[in-house]
Amino acid sequence: STINIPSQSAIKTGDHPPIYSKQYSASYTDQDMKFQETQKLLERGQIEESTSPWSSPIVLVKKKDKTMRFCIDYRRLNAVTIKDAFPLPRIDEIFDQLSDAVYYTKFDFKSGYFQVPLSKEDRPKTAFSTRDNHYQFTVLPQGITNGPATFQRVINHILGPARWKYALAYIDDVIIYSKTFEEHLSHLNDICTILKNARFRLNPEKCEIAQTQTDYLGHNIKNGEIRPSPNNINGLLNTRLPQTADEACKFVKAAEYYRKFIPKFSQIAEPLRKFVPTTRTQQKKGQKTLIKLTNDELKAFDQLKQILTTDMVLRLPNNRFPFKVQTDASDEGIGAVLLQIYPEGDRPIAYLSKKFTQAQRKWSPMEQECYAFICALDKWHNYLSGIKFTWETDHKALTQLNQKAQINKRCERWRLKILEYDYKVKYIPGLTNSMPDYLSRSPVDDAEEDPDEISLLISKSTQTDFLDIINHSPVVAAVQTRAMKLRNLTSNDKNDTTILTPDTPIGENRITTISIEQLIQAQQNDNYAKNILNKIKKYKHYIINDNLLMRRTNPPVPYVPQGDLRKIILNIYHDSAANGAHFGRDKTIPKIKQRYFWPSMYKDIDNYIKSCIPCAQFNPRRQKPPVSMDFHGPINPTTQRGNKYIISLTDVLSKFVITKAVRDNTTLTAVRFLKEDVISKFGTPRCILTDNGTHFTSTMMDELVKQIGTTHLYSTPYHPQTNGQVERYNSTMDAKIAALSNLRKTDWDDQLPFVTFNYNTSIHSSTRQIPFEMMYGRSPVLPFDHQDTNVTLSYDPEHSKKLKQFLSTLNEQAKINIIKNQERYKQRYDMNRSNPTYNIGELVLCKTLNIRYKFDIRYEGPFRIVKQLTPKTFIIQHVKKPTLYRQVTTDVLLPIFERNF
């Protein structure tokens, strides 16, 4: 039920046209949860069915008790909403009123926003959709920008004359205050009657009745005294003693930020001044120098902390001055300061310091810095909700947090969490962010898990144009998920299609092949195929099998008509993680040739791969292959599982590769890899070639080699070509994993098995054989292969003999092909060194000059050449960002091909 007041208008958008946002894809479990939540909201009368042209997407918020909260992403609606200027009460005036009281009662509303009725003209703007229906709110929803101002207006109206006499409300925080107990009972009765008449419902578990001491708006109130809550100053007051000269220096710098408010600051801080370096050389030398504070230094440290946490510097909040939040993060934790901008300088209101969990230490810097802001909002919500404030950070990427179209999922859900706040983000240099920096390096509060985890279930766009192919294709059902297949069996609804992108695990692993029925349908709509079907006797290279036109090969393969199905096949066998992994022409053609046919397939495959942007951006310099085992890394960024290295072992003849993502490159890791992933699965190798790293030359490795009877050889120092087999695979692997990984490259260990599998199931350029076939004596079965449903088991007594002969033949042929391949690699290397020529209108990529990590994009683009200034200087224009021009020389350009179908 709603409170007994007129409906509120909270979403004024002027003449702006309706905004429609697509729904985020979700799992069956989450779809069911959305259905259950909407049914509850319907039963309570908080939503109603809608025909509104407006729509915002649903998000699911996981609370600390593991239950889910139903929320709507109103970012786009908030951007066009006219801001409500209704004032919040000044906090300093609230404290003035409370300072004369002795007894206090605090009320907490039960789902306060949902008790406020929403005007009929605003309801359509709150609309959202589930897979079953379209709804709109009848009450004030969470997440709209004018929510705090609207609720403050409502509670002010309800409290009426009692406000500023014996009752106050700061948004949904209501407090009743009195000087005597009898007076307090009378005031309490009056307010309860007012709330009852208004039909306001309270949450009794969070209410405090007739207390002589209470915490309100971040401050402790008792006997007329108002002091900062211990939670607001513990972040600084309980910081540890400096352990190094660098920590002492950072504390002095942090305190110095407020020196104008600290009388005799120079005199007090003088004993600690020796830790502040005057040159960069001194700074580097003193960073890790361990120290123990003397009595004078300890006294100065404690005195400065005491001053910074008392009213000499610290101030009660005052709404007359703007608020500001400064945040920072380090390897150890986060730090934040809430300040107000006084005419004489910034005054601190509260401090925050918190340690990281082990998982949080592995987050990217952007995630850690953003988390600091989220914790600050959680802690200081009462101060920051409903007002304009500034957020200062020394992490420049966060200044574009709300403008980024693509962002990692953790920061995405945090971005949703800050929807209700009205803030401006400002970049400041690290040197001026001294107090948060110090607090983050001396964290006090114990680590906590990520608060209010949000499951967004957003399928981001793939790196190729695969989704565009599907969305505009007449054969929309050509790619299905396995879950869809099961659903179709029960519902017979062949038009129910869900497209999952390769950015999610479901999208990567659950795409199934093009069905026979779809191929038959496409052939019947193709003039070339219909002509062959009608005159099949004239075409000796084709046969008909169960109404499907097939090319007469051994075994026969389906004919694929011109159009979207060819593009889908090319995407599957080149772009997808499970079946393509962005391998080259020589490896992709045999895979497709063994499964499909169309006349121009060689030309189309060649053009598709040459025009693949991820391949061009990550294409490594190829190196000459021979043998063995090595660690690859450290790889930056570290994955979510903490993996930094890849250990790999390659068979000298078959080129079969075994890989594993690991956390370190120690001897113990190498020994475990040999035992668990090599010996126990493939047997004991006769000879192992490694480099001279300590992880391979240790006593533990020698003991293992002796136990299994294996010869251990070492490559020539400073000559990696000796162990070039692994070196070559590593160079190939980097590019393929980078092309398949997410934007932050933190899931590369998820892509590693796919890349290794595709490497092992593709024809090797040196041996001209398939490593998998040479290892197992049979052809690999790929995820999209058609398989006979009738499986039989038979025993052939000649099988072992035939298999041995078959493998012997493969090995001999592989040796011959390795020798032949030597010259071909030399020719290719020489060809790559030639200087290409460029013409106006051609597509190119531009070299990325500041590459920091292994998986960073090597080339940006695509660009188109629009003007030639000199024989080697051009003006290029970005294809997808027409306003972006660059003047470049030919040495940073890479020619790429345009797709012609």
Short description:
With 901 residues, this protein is α+β, with helices and mostly antiparallel strands. 36% of the residues lie in helices and 18% in strands.
CATH superfamily of the largest domain: Ribonuclease H-like superfamily/Ribonuclease H
Mean pLDDT: 76
Shape label: globular
The percent range for strand residues is 15-25%
Strand order of the largest sheet: 15-14-13-16-17
What are the low-pLDDT stretches, counting only 5+ consecutive residues below 50?
279-286, 451-512, 620-626, 716-723, 829-834
The CATH architecture of the largest domain would be: 2-Layer Sandwich
Q: According to CATH, what is the topology of the largest domain?
A: Nucleotidyltransferase, domain 5
Rg, nearest Å = 34 Å
Number of strands: 31
Q: Major beta sheet, specifics?
A: 5 strands, mixed
Our measurement of the CA-to-CA distance between the termini, rounded to an integer number of angstroms, reads 60 Å
CATH class of the largest domain: Alpha Beta
Structural class: alpha+beta
Our count of domains comes out at: 5
Give the number of helices: 31
Roughly how much helix do the residues carry, as a percent range? Answer: 25-40%
Q: Could you characterize what this model shows?
A:
- GO terms for molecular function: endonuclease activity; hydrolase activity; nucleic acid binding; RNA-directed DNA polymerase activity.
- Pfam families: Integrase_H2C2 (PF17921), RT_RNaseH (PF17917), rve (PF00665), RVT_1 (PF00078).
- Keywords: Endonuclease, Hydrolase, Nuclease, Nucleotidyltransferase, RNA-directed DNA polymerase, Transferase.
- The protein is an alpha+beta fold and 901 residues long.
- The protein folds into five domains: 201 residues, Alpha-Beta Plaits (2-Layer Sandwich), CATH 3.30.70; 226 residues, Ribonuclease H-like superfamily/Ribonuclease H (Nucleotidyltransferase, domain 5), CATH 3.30.420.10; 148 residues, Endonuclease III, domain 1; 158 residues, Ribonuclease H-like superfamily/Ribonuclease H (Nucleotidyltransferase, domain 5); 53 residues, SH3 type barrels.
- It is built from 31 helices and 31 strands.
- The strands form nine sheets. It has a five-stranded mixed beta sheet with strand order 15-14-13-16-17. It has a five-stranded antiparallel beta sheet with strand order 30-29-28-27-31. Strands 7-8-4-9 form a four-stranded antiparallel beta sheet, with helices on both faces.
- Strand 14 and strand 15 form a beta hairpin.
- Helix 12 runs parallel beside helix 14, helix 22 packs antiparallel against helix 23 and helix 28 crosses helix 29.
- The longest helix has 34 residues.
- About 10% of the residues have low confidence.
